[in-house]
Amino acid sequence: MRKTIAILLACLMLLTFTACGKSEATKNVEAAISAIGEVTLESGNSINAAQQAYDALTDKEKEQVENINLLAEAKSALANLEKLEAERIEAERLEAERLEAERIEAEYVQKRNALIAAIHTINEFSDYTSGEILKMWNNVINSKSSLDFSAVYGSLVFMTFDGTVDEYMAKYDKQFELFIHAAGLAVAPDITPVSALTDMSVDTMNKIIKLCYEYNHNISLLQTSLEELDEIMAEYKTCVSDDHKDEYELLSEWYVETKSYAEFASAPTGNYTSYSNNRSNYQSEMGKYQTKASLLG
Q: Per-residue confidence at 35, pLDDT binned at 50, 70, 90?
């Protein structure tokens, strides 16, 4: 019995000696590890501090740190949280890039479509204007398609009044008289201006005047539309990237050809037959560009 009691006392003294044998540094490390608590993304400083304090212990003191496993678990938990956070940040970055790319592409498509619509408008004006020119040409020279248009066109520079035909006639009768003279010369260059004027009926004069007025009105609209087209083209260029190179080349060519067609339509030269043939060629080219543009995404 006495022997058993002695053994128990010895064990108790040993345990007491062991507990009392921890250094202050060892106790501080254990306290630092315990203070970490639940690991969050903000736990890095406390984990690093506990690790640095542990690393500063002697080998014997390290062996006495009873909760060192908690430090290892905290480090692992923090590493996992940081990995998840990095993945979240990367996912947000990729999503932001995707949204920005969509925004840029949507802006490009909007400006591209605006350019295509403007080109359509110009070509419609050119089609109509050139058609009216052929109509006027045919009426003025009585279908003598081999005669040059310059005599008729040269007089059109006076036609800038924005009003009705009657108002125009009342205000600019002398200028219309000049136009009729030029028209008469185009019909028969050997006829004097005076006889050309007297030989034309009032109906013929009014028909020519109306066509001339419509012509100049269309030219005015066409010039305004061309200015708008240039502005739209400049806007389109600002959002073109390497991904749009092929589309840009196609639309740039179409833009140039459209302006050329508009210039052709608004400043006729040559004779009726050549002008009509050139108009058909332009319309064919515009049709080809239109077909290619319709395939754009």
A: very high
Q: What is the pTM of this model?
A: 0.64
pLDDT digits (tens, 9 = 90+) for 63-120: 999 999 999 999 999 999 999 999 999 999 999 999 999 999 999 999 999 999 999 9
DSSP string, the chain: -HHHHHHHHHHHHHHHHHHHT--HHHHHHHHHHHHH-S--GGGHHHHHHHHHHHHTS-HHHHHT-TTHHHHHHHHHHHHHHHHHHHHHHHHHHHHHHHHHHHHHHHHHHHHHHHHHHHHHHHHHHHHHHHHHHHHHHHHHTTT-TTSBSHHHHHHGGG----S-HHHHHHH-HHHHHHHHHHHHHHH-TTS-HHHHHHHS-HHHHHHHHHHHHHHHHHHHHHHHHHHHHHHHHHHHHTT--GGGHHHHHHHHHHHHHHHHHHHHHHS--SBHHHHHHHHHHHHHHHHHHHHHHTT--
